[in-house]
Amino acid sequence: MYRYDQYDLTLLEQRTAQFRDQVARRLGDALSEEEFLPLRLQNGLYRQRHAYMLRVAIPYGTLSSAQMRVLAEIGLRWDRGYGHFTTRQNIQFNWINLEDAPDIMDRLAEAEMHAIQTSGNVVRNITTEQFAGVAADEVMDPRPLAEILRQWSTLNPEFAFLPRKFKIAISASASDRAAVQAHDVGIYLYRAPGGEPLLRILAGGGLGRTPMLGSVIREALPWQHLTTYVEAILRVYNRYGRRDNKYKARIKILVQALGADAFAAEVEREWALLCDSPSTITADEYRRVAAHFATPDYADAATDPAVLSAHLAGDAAFARWHRRNVHPHQRLGYASVTLSTKPGIAAPPGDVTSAQMDVVADLADTFGFGEIRVSHEQNLILPDVRQRDLFALWQAAGAAGLATANVGLLTDIIACPGGDYCSLANARSIPLAHAIQARFDDLDFLHDLGELSLNISGCVNACGHHHLGNIGILGVDKNGEEWYQVTLGGEQGQEAAIGKVIGRSFRAGEMPDVVDKIIATFCAHRLGDESFAQTCRRIGLAPFKARVYAQEEG
User: Fold this and answer.
1) Most CB contacts within 10 A, which of 24, 26, 132, 552?
2) Residue pLDDT, tens place only, 156-182
3) In angstroms, rounded to a whole number, what is the distance separating the alpha carbons of residues 185 and 217?
4) Which of 462, 364, 449 is CA-nearest to residue 412?
5) Pairing relationship of beta strands 500-501 and 481-488 according to DSSP bridges
6) CA distance 180 to 495
């Protein structure tokens, strides 16, 4: 993974010193809260329902075991012993005292981490898929280009005050596992017939109160032009994006207003001024950054397939975990493993205790090369595990509550912190997630259902990506009471789709029954091994609505 050089370290040192002074001035009332607001947001510090919340960046979702231990330490020393991994590969600490924030920033900087640009109207954390660099279906490793974009966009003065926040995701695999189409700018890497890496650029995706999927605005862009082309997009957005209405300020509104073709033409005109400028990525620069993502020593891959087969045949629970949580690897004898943070009512989705973080760091050192990934589904991944170690890893992870065999299943719920913490939320997400997880706690039944995503957002800002869930749940406010609106048919990946609202909203207590009826409808109409998404596409919403609202219609 990328290691900071002296420029990076100096930048962080100066930034944390600046922030320490700003906090001291706020605590001494030299700065009003209004004056302090933009300063703290530039450093990822929010003021939430109960306390300050600090959002720490995890660039393209990659952590070292040493960094994970620092996050565990922060949770223990300055929070309440845990952290919350988000849908954009960040971690949030929800119980921060303002007085402690500068010390936390210093501790992060010592471990080559920061919270810069995790909030505000800037380019946010660059994301990619959790298996980048090791996925069996990968065309090329997207991390070097993601890192180049990170360096280019960090504290870029031209884009410090965009109309709204700006999110970029990159995928380089046959399966899009980074929700690329739901980002302001989405990038697919692929290879030309001759092998040259090319970029497909999408713009205008985003969720929130006006969900849209991105439109392709450029095909076959040579990789050397990544930064100049993104710069051209940002310049067009910066110039024409609305600033009079924050709800109309995202780039998706501009792309929709101009039309994708007209927007693309504007970008091409701007790019003509930037193409082949000094910002063009040179082969030397790519090699410099890519060297930080060098292939680990996979020499010790020797494995006896008979041993793994014996474990799979002899332990049904291990076999079930292997089927859901173990993923194909590029290297023979290795696999990637997802550690589920969704054990059911024992913890909110994405929450990991400091003790568990330390365990994950130890597991990464023992069973891999000291590296950990964060998925946008809020789980943790060990990317390089010898297949001969899978059984031992499963046992160790299980002892720490991190081996629930539900990855990609109904109880692998994606959820924002909701009204229990977030001051923007209209309704609570965590109790609802727990109620649904408790209703569907039969793992055999869940495995029979197959792939099925359920996403919960506490408000229209859609931090839980509910629009992309096969079943999406949105918290809404009705005269001061919490209600929940249901969407069906959402999907992420290459066939991404925005879910559609099925009808009137429900009270929290009704929701497990509503999900029950949706699942019953799926089972009644499913053909063979169809996934929920396939059945939903085939039969449409009508059968689901008929069962969910049956009593009302009767």
Assistant:
1) 132
2) 999 999 999 999 999 999 999 999 999
3) 10
4) 449
5) antiparallel
6) 11
- Name residues whose C-beta falls within 8 Å of residue 482's C-beta, 6 or more positions apart in sequence: 419, 426, 427, 428, 475, 476, 507, 508
User: How would DSSP label each residue in 174-227?
Assistant: SS--S-GGGSSEEEEEEE-TTS-EEEEEEE--B-TTS-B--EEEEEEEEGGGHH
Q: Tell me, what amino acid is at 114?
A: H
Residue (of 61, 56, 58) closest to 75 by Cα position:
56
* Residue 444 CB burial class (10 angstroms; 0-12, 13-18, ≥19): exposed
Is residue 449 within 8 A of residue 522, CB to CB? The reply is: yes
Token pair in block for residue 135:
């996925």
d(CA 82, CA 241): 38
**Interatomic CA distance for residues 402 and 359, integer angstroms:** 10
Q: Residue 554: pLDDT above 60?
A: no
Q: How many degrees, rounded to 5, is the angle at CA 412 between CA 124 and CA 395? A: 110
Mean of per-residue pLDDT scores for the chain: 95
The helix/strand/coil state of 378 is: coil
- The secondary structure element, H or E, covering residue 457 is strand 454-457
Burial of 519 (0-12, 13-18, 19+ CB in 10 A): buried
Q: Can you give the pLDDT at residue 174?
A: 94
Question: What pLDDT, on the 0 to 100 scale, is given for residue 36?
Answer: 97
Note the pLDDT of residue 305.
81
Helical packing angle, 226-240 and 143-153, nearest 10°: 40
Q: What are the residues whose beta carbons fall under 8 Å from the beta carbon of 169, sequence distance 6 or more?
A: 126, 127, 128, 178, 179, 180, 182, 183, 185, 186, 187
Cα–Cα distance for residue pair 77/81, rounded to 1 Å: 8
CA dist 58 → 147, 204, 212, 365, 388 (Å):
11, 24, 25, 19, 30
Q: What is the pLDDT of residue 1?
A: 83
Q: What is the pTM of this model?
A: 0.95
| DSSP H or E stretch at residue 385 | strand 380-386
**Residue 388 C-beta-side C-alpha neighbours within 13 Å:** 9
Gap between the Cα atoms of 549 and 517, Å rounded: 9
Residue 4 tokens read as 């900071």
State residue 473 phi and psi, 5-degree precision: -130, 125
Q: Rounded to whole angstroms, how far apart are CA atoms 103 and 123? A: 25
Residue-wise pLDDT for 23-56, tens only, equals 999 999 999 999 999 999 999 999 999 999 999 9
pLDDT in tens, 325-361: 999 999 999 999 999 999 998 899 999 999 999 999 9
pLDDT digits (tens, 9 = 90+) for 442-469: 999 999 999 999 999 999 999 999 999 9
Q: Tokens 């996925």, residue?
A: 135
Between CA 341 and CA 401 the distance in angstroms is 8
Q: Range with the lowest mean pLDDT among 253-262, 300-309, 350-359, 524-533?
A: 300-309
